[in-house]
Specification:
CATH architecture of the largest domain: 3-Layer(aba) Sandwich
Strand content: 5-15%
Strand order of the largest sheet: 3-2-1-4-5-6
CATH superfamily of the largest domain: HAD superfamily/HAD-like
CATH class of the largest domain: Alpha Beta
Number of domains: 2
Number of strands: 6
Shape: globular
Number of helices: 9
Helix content: 40-55%
Radius of gyration: 17 Å
Structural class: alpha/beta
Largest sheet: 6 strands, parallel
Length: 215
């Protein structure tokens, strides 16, 4: 049995996809860059600067490094404004319940999100203080699929990688878990997470015993 569960945040515990989409869409429209939900799908599980690079693939003009940093900062400022609308009702099905079930069983829990806004999201949704460890984008230098974020979460829980299972909704996160030497469980569909044997549509359909079995 695994002793720790590491949750990705967005798309697993809470959905801020629409807020990200709105913030990126507003930015792209101002810059005259074509941007739609198909492009937005490629941004799942990807850090802010990497997401910007994907968006700029369609840009009609080049951008300097300073301009890129300014664009990323503007997007984040708008996104943080939109975060003010988050409430506990924005938690995805089963999120609060599964965290509580794990805690009652003595299983350690962590959140590992590439977003620097993770603490704000946890606070707004009522999840702050309910995890043994939180790792966000400000704690790491390499984003998923690099395993750094999950390895750091394991260390902060006082566990070895082999003692942990990762819950992820993005292929980049699943690959990061593999590289970290951790078990993993997918949230989504088999089509969106090819090659992942254990998949559920949401945390509401995840059996805690099966989750920590860590196959």
């Amino acid at each position: 049995m695994k002793r720790g569960v590491i949750f990705d945040l967005d798309g697993v515990l809470v959905s801020t996809d629409e807020l990200h989409y709105r913030a990126w869409k507003e930015l792209a429209d101002r810059e005259g860059i074509p941007f739609d939900r198909e492009v937005n799908h490629r941004l799942r599980g990807v850090g802010r600067m990497e997401s910007l690079e994907i968006i700029l693939e369609r840009a009609p003009r080049p951008y300097t490094d300073d301009q890129r940093r300014a664009l990323a900062a503007a997007k984040n400022e708008r996104y943080r404004e939109l975060l003010a609308s988050l409430t506990p009702s924005d938690l995805l099905p089963g999120a609060a319940e599964i965290v509580e079930k794990l805690r009652r069983r003595g299983i350690r829990t962590a959140v590992a999100s590439s977003s620097r806004n993770a603490p704000t999201i946890l606070e707004r949704t009522g999840l702050a203080g309910r995890f043994d460890a939180v790792v966000d984008g400000g704690d790491i230098t390499r984003t998923k699929p690099d395993p750094e974020i999950f390895l750091l979460a394991a260390r902060r829980m006082g566990l070895a990688p082999a003692e942990c299972v990762v819950v992820e909704d993005a292929p980049a996160g699943i690959e990061a878990a593999r590289r970290a030497g951790m078990a993993y469980y997918g949230i989504g569909s088999p089509r969106s997470l090819p090659g992942v044997e254990r998949v559920a549509p949401s945390l509401a359909e995840v059996d805690v015993v099966d989750l920590v079995a860590g196959a």
